[in-house]
């Protein structure tokens, strides 16, 4: 099993980040995210528990095609929102092709104690594979891809936050925002097209 940990500082308040969390798709970096459905939501002991299902697609290396026949995979995302302690903790895991490679991720969003106008996100991930003879190679591949995707996730989330709160955080230049909007539109159209052609589109509601 491979382990990865990373910390990101968002230059937005915790309230803003939490609001943006539910709206983070689509964004210019999320063309691989096809759909997003809320499966359940419950308020218990002043905490909001939410479970969602996302469908995503990723490019596969040539060697990966021998193990995976369909590049679309379902992801379960569970979150716990604690307004009193100002924390949002999310857990995600893939429920498709988990025997080939499983990725379990935990992210905690909390107030930056050094600057209450900022939010700290601590991300932890565990990558595993049970494919005989290829397990370590697949784990290493999964780890490197996850690291690469982290940068895209942060970039995409910052784009959404900047659209919601343009006078906060690090504002993008106008020409960059305009270009990003075009990419966002292209990404949304591409995701919709791919989702409709997927083998289980009829059984899944559209997601982020």
TrEMBL record:
GO CC annotations on file = mitochondrial intermembrane space
Source organism, top-level taxon: Eukaryota
Residue stretches making up the PRELI/MSF1 domain? 1-169
Put simply, this protein is called PRELI/MSF1 domain-containing protein
Q: Which organism is it from?
A: Bemisia tabaci (Sweetpotato whitefly)
Upper taxonomic classification of the species? Answer: Eukaryota, Metazoa, Ecdysozoa, Arthropoda, Hexapoda
